[in-house]
Every structure is written in structure tokens, then in C-alpha cells.
Amino acid sequence: TSTAVKQTSEQNTEEIKEEEEEAEEDRFQINQTEEEEEEVVNTEHKDVFDGHSNQLEDVYTEDNINQVNESDDVLLNMTDNYLNQTDDSTQTSTKQEEEDEDEDEDEDEEVLMAVKEEEEEEEEEEEEDEEEEEEIEE
After folding, report:
1. In this structure, how many other beta carbons lie within 10 angstroms of the beta carbon of residue 112?
2. Which secondary structure element, helix H or strand E, spans residue 93, and what is its range?
3. In whole angstroms, what is the distance from residue 76 CA to residue 68 CA?
4. In sequence order, what DSSP letters do the residues of 37-80 get, joined into one string?
5. Calpha distance 33→39 (Å, rounded)
6. Where is 138: in which H helix or E strand?
7. Distance CA 114, CA 116 (A)
8. Per residue in 59-95, pLDDT tens?
9. Which of the four pLDDT bands, split at 50, 70 and 90, describes residue 22?
10. What's the pTM value of the predicted model, to 2 decimals?
11. Cα 93 versus chain centre, distance
12. CA distance 50 to 58
């Protein structure tokens, strides 16, 4: 019976070793599978991240283009407004210059008329003086 117990004990020990080896293989397979799955998940996450990154980059680029276009529009409007104001002020100053010239001409005419009147008065006075002198001489 001791041989039978010994044999049974050896068989049990071998069965335990085989089960342990199988369990070790299973653990190795499980670890391998987990690593592969993790790699797949990481790749999927990276792909998703890259996709989002590309979308964000596209949106960012489009936003920049829109901002540049808006800035260009603002600058164009400002330039147009400035040019319109310059035209208006030029027209206004031209009108003002014309009015000033007209006023100057009117003043010149008034001065000329006044000078003519003075000359006429002086001539009349001279004529009167001459007539008086002639009367005195006669």
C-alpha cells in the first residue's frame, strides 16, 4: 500500500505540475492577449485623437482664414470711409475756397468802386477848384 500511496502521491504531484504549467501557459496567453488588445485600443485612441486633432486644425485654419477675411473687410471699410471723408473734405474745402474767392472778388470790386468814387470826387473837386480859380481870375 505504501507503493500505491507513493505512486498516487507522485501522480498527484505530476498532475499538479501539469496543471500549474497549463495555468502558467494560460496566464501567458492572457497577458499576450491583453497586451494585443491594449495595443489595438491605443491605436484606435491614437486614430481618434489624430482625427480630432486634424478636425481641430481644420477648424482653427478656417477660423484664421475667416478672421483674416474679416480683418481685410474692416480695413477696406476703414479705407473707404477715409477716402470718402477725404473726398468730402476736399469738396468742402473747394467750395469754401470758391466762396472765399467770390468774397475776395466782391471786396476787390467794392474797393475799386470806392477808389473810382474817390477819383471822381477828386476830379469834381479839381474841376470845381479850377472853375473857382477861373472865376477868381476873371
Report:
1. 10
2. helix 2-137
3. 12
4. HHHHHHHHHHHHHHHHHHHHHHHHHHHHHHHHHHHHHHHHHHHH
5. 10
6. none
7. 5
8. 777 777 788 888 888 888 998 888 888 777 777 777 7
9. very high
10. 0.32
11. 34
12. 12
